[in-house]
Amino acid sequence: MKGPGTASSVRVVTLKINDHDVSARESESILEVARENGIRIPSLCQMDGLSIAGACRLCMVELKGSSRLLAGCATRVAEGMEVLTNTERLRKYRRMIVELLLAERNHVCSVCVSNGRCELQDLAFECGVDHVRFPYRSAVYQVDASHDWYRVDHNRCVLCLRCVRVCDEIEGAHTWDAMGRGINCQVVTDLKRPWGESDSCTGCGKCVQICPTGALVKHGTSAGEMEKDVHFLPYLSRMRHWE
Amino acid sequence: MTLTVQRPKPPSEDKRWKMIDVAMRRQGYSPHALIEVLHAVQNAFGYLDDDSMTYVAESLGLPLSKVYGVATFYHLFALKPQGEHTCVVCTGTACYIKGAGDLVDGIKQRFGVRLGETTEDKKLSILSARCIGACSIAPAAVIDGKVHGHLSVDELLARIEKVV
Amino acid sequence: MHLDELADFAAEVRKEQQESKHCIRVCMAAGCQSSGAAAVLDGLKGQVDDDANVHVKGVGCMGLCAAGPLVEIESLEASSKTASSKTLYQKVTADDAEAIVDSLDAEPVERLRCSTDIPFFAWQKKVVLENSGIIDPEEIKEYIAADGYLGLVTALTELTPADVLREIKASGLRGRGGGGYLTGLKWSTVAKMPPGQKYVICNSDEGDPGAFMDRAVLESDPHRVLEGMVLAGYAVGADHGFVYIRAEYPLAIERLKKAIQQATRQGLLGKNICETRLSFDIEIRLGAGAFVCGEETALMASIEGSRGQPRPRPPYPAAYGLFGQPTLINNVETLANVPSIIRHGGDWFAAMGTERSKGTKVFALAGRIQNTGLIEVPMGITLRDIIETIGGGVPDGKTFKAVQTGGPSGGCIPEQFLDLPVDYDTLRDVGSIMGSGGMIVMDQSSSMVEVARYFMEFCMDESCGKCVPCRAGTDQMYHLLDKIVKEKATSRDLALLEELCDMVSATSLCGLGQTAPNPVLSTLRYFRQEYEEKLQDLAVAGSGQADLARADSSASETEETK
Amino acid sequence: MMQQNRITVATTWLDGCSGCHMSLLDIDDRLFLLAEKVDFVYSPLVDAKQLPESVDVGIIEGSVSTDEDLHKAIEFRKRCKFLISLGDCAVSGNVPSMRNLFKLDDVLDRAYRENVQVNPQIPRDGVPKLLEKVQPLHGVVDVDLFVQGCPPSAEVIWNVLSELVAGRTPDPTKLTRFGA
């Protein structure tokens, strides 16, 4: 965090997003600038206060005159850029990404504790996914309810790895990490032992609060009851990284 | 002021832990040396178990889940003991074109194990390699570290039977 | 070691070599070893015993793996002190040792002879492989006798880093790992970064199935790669190098280790190389079986001891690389070209090849082709020359169907394009890529849909799992291809497959996902009828049977398959 | 597409809870308005038990779980000009498809043997045979319109039907969602 004395060193650029002129600090990402200007770009793995993963690929944007797409979260703005965030091509790809996520694990919204408060569900709605064209993989995943307060249901995990990042970057516990690779990736606590037996988990619950779906939830919640609050994160992140 | 780092004790009296300690010392107990150290563990013990991963994690100052994540990311690390003998069937493109699939089927028929499995008597593990770079002598397999090329199913089975 | 000391040393070794009248070289590369080269070497050594006139040694890859084990005899002509004659023997067994040794001062053993006038040898142009199969890779003095390290010592004593950069730029060398990025440009970007800790990485994670060029170079001539790395370090201002090499190549690892020790002992590596201010260390880092680690940001994550997952670029490694420092990453073959370029000059190199693809390229010929093995040819040669003339065509009277280049990121090129010149751009134009140099020839017995499925399975297994399109997309594409192969798919499945190809290549995070659809796209482009023949009729709306349920037993528990 | 005024509608339920049909009834007094424009020619809610040869709109609730479901889905597709997949079970498989994580035999054992004290046996006669895997409706036949929701609200169903009656193709994607 830079003090006020360095303000003069901040360079400001102007660019176009969806043909609107906007100005931005050079250090900002396309996604940040779009949000500041009220332009919504769907995203899932990105979260203010955590490092950039660039993994969900939902925030891909187009640059005028280029066929190559860029991840809005991981690309800095530049002078004169002409960004398009909502072309037909992007809408088609986003829809497919959400479909792939829905087919990958066993997301049964109607019986999910996060029903109605789920980012994946919202994305499906936003991207117009009225059905999934891909075969559901129907792979078997475990539910680990061994923790005193929390529960992890891998059937509903989208592998955004927000939990892994918040646990490492904010809480400093690094209880979570990802194991395996490809379609067999899974988040794990410690050596893939039950969460309740973890020595490193501090029980802070940040992972649960920022999980976008019903994968990480509090005990005692049933369908539609799990409410999450992510608003603490930017503040905490600022406080922890204060130099 | 000097900081003395308390290093954990090896999980057992087994002399092979000395090799692991040497490998870690050589790398200055740097967390970046994780993969090198896991190689050392696998070379010494044949596979990685919870004890060894915990020991490595504590020695290098790494979270357990990170060690587990790395160990399961790379195909060469095994989390279960392997058979006494191994046969690695190359499934690279050249071997595929020249019938690696038949070799795998032949092994399945004769020994009842598929790729990645170990026979019940723990004598033989069948593994696959993405390409061992011996494409010119495809199809190829590596039996206990020795490369054999231009294999027919019968030849491969005979060679395996010789060692098992 | 000064320039004149190096020259003296080289002259001394050459003189020593000429003391024995006959030199017997036994190919000890993987291909020949698996057909019994070690026994041949022992047999020959036993026959020769202590005869000072005959020198027997194991050498690196001679190229024609199909005819292994190979043995080459070089004999000094009786009339002259320098001119020599060479005889090549093929398919040698230990039992032949006696006959070979007996024939040394007499007529060659005809039944074993392999003509070296055939196009396989005659049409090649060796730069990277100039020492392969000739020198003993485990002896630094043999490399030095072949003008090894001459480029480095010359550069250190007579050229500035900027001069070295200029030569590399003038050579027009492009990255041999697959992308074809201009090497000079890459080097100068790293060189322009502010002074400080920088790294050079040699990418030896040759993961493309069907490619073994880098393996052969590392096993046959490891010092060449080290010399290239030190030159790179000098040019860009780095003092530390890493060789990231696959653990599947134990012999190459062993030889590299030995080479690093020897070069360090000779003062050609380490602190104050050749008593100059340049210091450069090289460390070896082993991969552990992950194809994605060939991608440069994943490779760096792996050197740092993490899961080999790529990260978004920019920032590029040149600016923010290994441990956050500016980093130059080049592939083995790229670096192996460097010593020759410095020795002979960039213009010499640029005179070979085509307008936009300079120099030579090493290819690994495999699959349904007569002369499987390793070749090095000038860029711009036609595919037909490589496959039919040098490679001897498709054996057993079968007909050529396609050649696969570029591995899982490449494509299948059909007969109609065989007369195209091989360079980065033409191959891309026909839907494939140069890749690292694997060429797998297929005849009519290969089903192109199955080949596409094979590569998709590869990509699915090797996907790191970080980004959604690659992780879940390759899995869906594989199952769609499997359905087509099993003749259970409809035209709707094929359309879905094509849509996925488009999406996965446009949105994936790294090269693996972006190029994973290529084998499907190229086979669809040239062999679409093979796909269509396997489709089920889209029955009257009513029994479409899209079969949207899938039981995926493979997806459950990763570690159980370990 | 279809005549402006009266349209014929057939509905059926496959593997589901019939909640979507209940939701249809929840349009309450608007049912009278509907009755002026729509003939329900076949439905669990009406007496007609014979699916006519040709119907304007078919509405299917529930997932395809048995051979009988499959047969019904195919018959509907053949005879209906416009086929609607109504509710999450039909659209995604939903709760019924949760059995796809297990082997069919294990599911049957669990239901009819393991947890049964009296005369445990797997019924075979007179009941439809379970398919190996539960599928969404579009997994077996082409579908023209998807209406998600568990169940879709009466408002959504009303919107869809009134759009159809008006001769327009409905677009419920901004009105409902999975799990709604």
Structure in words:
The complex is a heterotetramer of chains A (243), B (164), C (562) and D (180). Chain A has 2 domains: 75 residues, Ubiquitin-like (UB roll) (Roll); 149 residues, Alpha-Beta Plaits (2-Layer Sandwich). By secondary structure, chain A is of the alpha+beta class. Chain A contains 6 helices and 10 strands; from the N terminus they run E-E-H-E-E-E-H-H-E-E-H-E-E-H-E-H. The N terminus of chain A is likely disordered. Chain B folds into 2 domains: 58 residues, Arc Repressor Mutant, subunit A, CATH 1.10.10; 79 residues, Glutaredoxin, CATH 3.40.30.10. With 164 residues, chain B is of the alpha+beta class. The N and C termini of chain B lie far apart (58 Å). Chain B has a 4-stranded mixed sheet with strand order 2-1-3-4, with helices on one face. Chain B contains 7 helices and 4 strands, in the order H-H-H-H-E-H-H-E-E-E-H. A 5-stranded mixed sheet of chain C has the order 10-9-13-11-12. Helix content of chain C is 41%, strand content 14%. Chain C has 4 domains: 109 residues, 3-Layer(aba) Sandwich (Glutaredoxin); 204 residues, NADH-ubiquinone oxidoreductase 51kDa subunit (Rossmann fold, 3-Layer(aba) Sandwich), CATH 3.40.50; 84 residues, Ubiquitin-like (UB roll) (Roll); 91 residues, Up-down Bundle (de novo design (two linked rop proteins)). Chain C is α/β, with parallel strands linked by helices and 562 residues long. Chain C contains 22 helices and 13 strands. The longest helix of chain C has 18 residues. The C terminus of chain C is likely disordered. Chain D is α/β, with parallel strands linked by helices. Chain D has a single domain, classed as NADH:ubiquinone oxidoreductase-like, 20kDa subunit (Rossmann fold). Chain D contains 6 helices and 7 strands. In chain D, the strands form 2 sheets. Chain D has a 5-stranded parallel sheet, with helices on both faces. Chain D has a two-stranded antiparallel ribbon with strand order 4-6. Chain D is elongated, with a radius of gyration of 17 Å. The relative contact order of chain D is 0.20. The mean pLDDT of chain D is 93. Chains B and C meet through helix 2, helix 4, helix 5 and strand 4 of B and helix 2, strand 9, strand 13 and helix 18 of C.
